[in-house]
Amino acid sequence: EVRQSYIPSFFNTL
Amino acid sequence: MLEARLEQSSVLKKVVDAIKDLVQDCNFDCNDSGIQLQAMDNSHVALVAMHLKTEGFALYRCDRNIALGINLVSLQKVLRAAQNEDVMTLKAEDSPDALSLVFENSENDRISEYDLKLMDIDQEHLGIPETEYGATVKMPSAEFQRICRDLSLLSESVAIEATKEGIKFSCTGDIGKGAVTLRQNPNVEKPELGTTIELQEPVALTFSLKYLVNFCKASGLSNTVTISLSNEVPLLIEYEMEHGYVRFYLAPKIGD
Lengths: 14, 256
Fold this sequence. Notes:
Largest sheet of chain A: none
Largest sheet of chain B: 9 strands, antiparallel
Number of helices of chain A: 0
Helix content of chain B: 10-25%
Number of strands of chain B: 19
Distance between the termini of chain B: 51 Å
Radius of gyration of chain B: 20 Å
Number of strands of chain A: 1
Distance between the termini of chain A: 33 Å
Oligomer: heterodimer
Strand content of chain A: 15-25%
Number of helices of chain B: 4
């Protein structure tokens, strides 16, 4: 089963 | 204060058209490098980054950084009043509550003036790390749009595999499955119609087709699209303009 990941887990807030 | 003039209103019209279905409210950050925008969609699965560089403006003056908080649907309503060939001048004071837009037609016998109310949008800025991608594919934007649309009729997800043979888009759904493989084909006469693949390492990732179809609304910005992939990082879809770009980042679907 694949699940969607999210942008903030790759690019952190400045 | 900001004063920026575009020879062709179509530049901003096309950019807003490309991103208005992905993000609603966003800050147009004006500084001495031009006008930039970075925003995630509501579900935080995708990020759009746009840059209209100073060189793309017939005139550009920005004394200090100004963030223009704009609702894209409202901006689009105002931009509808601009003809593609109209000269467009954007003006705003420092810490403005409105953006002035002036459209002048090429015969210079019609001048339209609009003020768009601005919003306070406190959007966090994300750091996008420089990435050496495993695979970088350049192809016709219409071709990519067709592949995404065709496969989105079969499935919600597409597996993208880049190998030295080429790039393969495959999907499986309730009605069956489909796959499209593009081989390296530089097309020397018409480079913008060719497909080139730079491969550092084989890559295989799965993405949501709904988002890819959405990104393809930007196909009008450029004849070509560059797709950059690396395992375990968001996909980068870039539409280059003469003096700027619109980039979409899409977080992958990860198998357990």
